[in-house]
Amino acid sequence: MGTPEEERPLQRALRLIAYVAAEPRVGGVLLLDVDGLLLDMVAERLAARLAESLPGREDQGNIPGAPAPSGIATQGDPGADDAVGGHRRTGTGVVTLGAWTREEHLWLRMGITPKGFRQRPGLLVEDPAEPPSVIVVPDLAHASAAVLRAAVTMVGATVASAETAGQSQRWRPRAVWLAGVRKADASTLSPHLTDRFPIRIDASDWRRDVGGLDPFEDLSDAELGRLVPPLPVAPQPGRLPSMSDAAVLDVVHRVPGSPGPRRDLALARIARAVAAEAGASEVASAHVEEAAGLLDITLAPRAAAKRPKGRRARPPEVVVQPVVPGGAERGATAPEPAPPADLIDVHVQQPAELPATPGRFDVTAAVSLYIEDDPEILAPRRTLVPEGPCSARRDRRGRAVGVEPCRDIHDIAVVPTLLEAAKFQRVRQGPKAGPGRLVLSPADLRQYRKRGRASAALVLVLDHSCRGDWDWLPALRRHLRWAHEVGAEVVVVELGHRAGLAALGAERFRADSIADPHVGYALDRRPASGTATPLAHALDVAVHETRRFLRHLRTGSGHVRLVVVTDGRGNVPLGASLRRRFPDPIGREGVEDALVTAAVLRSFKHVSGVVVAPEVVGCPTLPGELADAMGARLTVVRRGPGATTGRAS
Amino acid sequence: MSVLPYSLIVGQRELDTALRVAYVNRAVGGVLAVGPRGTAKTTMVRAFTDMVTDTLPVELPLGATEDRVIGGWQIDQLMKGKTEEKDGLLVEASNSPSGLLYVDEVNLLDDHLVNIMLDAVATGHVEIQREARSERVAVKFTLVGTMNPDEGGLRPQLLDRFGLVAGVRSTASGEATPDAGMDERVEVLRNVLRYEAELDDPHSAFVNDARARNALVKRSLDAARDLLAEVRLDDDILEMCAQLAQVFNAEGHRGALVLARAARAVAAIEAEPQVVPGHVRDIAKLALAHRRGLAETGSMPDWTEEDEKKIDAVLPPPED
Fold first, then answer.
1. How much is the ipTM here?
2. Distance CA B28, CA B22 (A)
3. If one looks up domain A4-237 in CATH, what number appears?
4. What kind of fold does domain A247-312 have according to CATH?
5. Whether A601 contacts chain B with CB within 8 A
6. Which A residues 382-411 touch B at CB under 8 Å?
């Protein structure tokens, strides 16, 4: 095996993955800009290695005291291996997950096997008698929320469990996850998720390594095999080398800006695999250095490495592209009617500053593999809240509110089906009827009737303290009309309409539709005599409500429209609202808190934001700042009775 | 069992205290651990349960279906035409040795499952009215949840059901944790890697020593449980608990009750015959931090010096 300097990127990556196979506790591997075909081949190589080195054993994945699933067909049963739902479980133990994957694919599936009507383990449920699988997610940025949630709870975990449809399964996860993501999309991944993938590989040069690859070329298995050789030899499981003090200190003191133990442990475990391969009984500094080289982690020089306690190192520098507010573009589903003539929509966009030396503005050279370390990244991030299926099929999720005959076999309600069948057993089986046998008829098949949910929501923040000599209804009318047309659920967040201590917080109520009379009352409400404007708290509530809607909007076409009516002059800090304590003194903290809270909204997908503001005399830029922070559009309405023309602030 | 022994877990003092207190006095209610990614929240909960009961906690995973939470039928038996009931996770947790129901990433749990849990915790019963079952089962379990606040807050009703909330901090976040840092990171690495290397060695002094320390902790916690009923809780302490709940604007009486019960557990853990103000001080933050002011969104204001001053205003100065 050559030194890292002599290796091509693909060779080096294969070596690193071989070490991952030897240290499966290390966590997931995230490959940036990886070619899908090459990813598949690498996964098959890894699966072959796992099958050689970690053959299934009855005692490997069992957990003492864990419930034993009963009546479930195992992977080895005829008909158990399949490609249902677009997932691929190859004979080599590779499972592919993606945007099409739903919860029921992962944990427990119903189906008809050659042995009859059987439950089968989901794609992520492991059989201790089988070697560990390789879970491949070709595009983590666009994988379904079910996949992301599974990754967060399973990758690197010591225990996994599934509790679905009458079955209780618990196992020790041994699968190795390989996920791909485009560099351009990497910043959209939740840091919570990427933390589960401490091994990062820049795979952008792999195609060049294999001399170019035409995805449409029909290569034979042998030709493909030559492109991606088997994984290099790596140590077999056995007694692991111990960590020397020097190696431990190197991992801790020489890695700048490590965000937590997972990354420390990943580096140390790869170093241990390197040491084991070298036949060493103890991990030394040289092994850590070699592991860091494989992981593209730059170690600080040893002399300068020891940092004073309590001081955080700066994360690796990352060049950040200017962020363009995309509220209108993100998730807008229907063309907007033209705004009335008295309103002007102002698309807030800060001019991008050119670098002082344009010739050195080299993005590719500066992009870190650990992009989540950069606190400046503000791209819309995926949340882990569940989403619905992306197809136009009717919503099969949500709360069951009854049972109905099946329309298809994709969503069978097991117990109601069996109970329906039970009624007719004497008739169907006649005198031979007895325990241990159940005759099912297609007419028995039942599915749950699910409570319907709106596919859109309007979150309306009304700052009554900015009401005065202007009418907000013309500016709101088109948003209210939209909510009516799409049957959106509505939540109204109000502030500035209370006096005393209550004025320090915002209030919200939910309505099934815009037709709820309380919405009308809120729009007509008059401001309180006080001066408190807890805008930051109102936006905090709006963030919470938006998250909640995103969790419930079960269809892929779901959309939240967030309309904030305010002049931006929040004067109550969020902490003061949460503590119900009057701020003293009143400064800009309330505005700053509002901007920080609003910035969270920018990170949500399927949300479009609008700020509706009156002309602000004292602080004319505040509404614009707020819209910018939210990634929203700005609509400015001219004050004064009879005013019909708006202008941009 | 490959769960890291509890005695090998580094730092996380607040969660450690909360779990011990909730174990000694189940009336305290549940424990919620809130912290960023990679802070061993889940490991700690599993390791603690393993230490005190030799089993893992009953877990309610994301994606669980309603029948598994409430209870249903043994499907395989139904397929054979037999009817055998299957307990749901709430009942399983209630009957488990630890009496714990653990929800990892509790803020990502589906709302209707949260509602079911809330009903069960509030009433002490699970109503099973589904799929030809109609019964009411008494349940009593301690709810333990972990969450990363980056993914959103908890509903206030659920937050209120957790008796204690523990902040879990990263050992790597030097600025946020002046008392933690490099030394803790070093210790984490040493413990985890050595445990992995020696896990299968029955003669490993390191592993055996860790297990022996676990046994000692368990013995002391069991002794505290036995002592709990004898620990005196005087009226002046109760009054301090009520005052603290008031100055922190805790709505309802749960804050004061939890605080008093938790202080009593702290005294029992310290083998003291009666609760003193110091015990209240030790646990006040965990019992009250999530009950301060508006909890509409589950957002919790940071615990600041101002909060410490409020405690100082009610409790006598700590004795050195």
1. 0.85
2. 6
3. 3.40.50.300
4. Helicase, Ruva Protein; domain 3 (1.10.8)
5. no
6. 383-386, 399-400
